[in-house]
Amino acid sequence: MLKKSVLLILTSILIVSCSNNPEKYIEHIEGYWEIERVTLKDGSTKEYKFNDTIDFISIEDSLQGVRKKLKPNFMGTFETSNNAETFTIRIENDSLNIYYETAFDSWKETILLATKDQLKVVSKNDAVFLYKRYEPLNLD
């Protein structure tokens, strides 16, 4: 009986400690990201070996931010346009959602994972985007 009680308590602790806490993802979202892979709704996958653009994500304390497309160049800087997507982050039903707004459209994406090195996002079309942290080319 004591063994069963201890096992039940340990199992409960393990389940609670592994539960999803989307708030912890927020600290990892900001930065430069490049697409590694996209898995479409039908299960097909597209791998990206090279990206000529990357995404830059900036977040303010108010959980509002901006996402821009950048083109890295060989000088170690970026080319960009003035176009940017503004967004608001919200935690809803144990999910971290990003609500985008442009002059032409508005949509929601859900963050499935955000770590120091990876960002996994579900788009409005149910495509799953896996990003890796951008690292500039080192030509030395």
UniProtKB/TrEMBL annotation:
Database matches in PROSITE patterns: PROKAR_LIPOPROTEIN
Protein name per UniProt: Lipocalin-like domain-containing protein
Pfam families attached to this UniProt entry: Lipocalin_4 (PF13648)
UniProt lineage: Bacteria, Pseudomonadati, Bacteroidota, Flavobacteriia, Flavobacteriales
InterPro entries, sorted: Lipocalin-like
Organism of provenance: Bizionia argentinensis JUB59
Origin superkingdom: Bacteria
Lipocalin-like domain residues: 29-120
